[in-house]
Amino acid sequence: MAADQEPPSDRPECPSAEGTGLLPGELRAWMLLLAATGAAEQRLRSVVKQTLDVSHDEFLILCLLAEQPQGGLRMTRIAELLGRPKTRLTYQIACLQRPGLVTRRAVCDDKRGVEVALTDKARRLLRESSGLLAEAVKDALAEFVGPAQRAAVLGLLPGLADGTR
To answer: Which residues lie within the region annotated Disordered (predicted)?
Structure first.
């Protein structure tokens, strides 16, 4: 669906960017963005599962690790970046370790520190599937981000359009 088309009638309308409710404009704009990115994320979940056979949260970990030029990341840093509890992250890392997608090792200068890194297998899978996954993201955003969401972003970040922010 093109960004300027109306949503299907079986789908409820998103809240209006102008709104008449209790929320100030900034919160209304944030809710519009969350709704759009949440819908895009849902679409990506199924593509990630079909393509890589991992959960969306595990995919986010793989993406974080893929952006590291060398080595990996400490588990505490991954938890911070994803806003996840460390206990949940430990389970997700174990799920990625089983099929050989990540490795874990102790950090030399910190006995409690654990670093996680991608394996060559994971790098190969990400390279092979990145085009399909990127296309899924673009398609989902084209469907769910329309004029109201664009206006919401510009309302939250006024200098974004002219590059001053």
So the answer is: 1-21
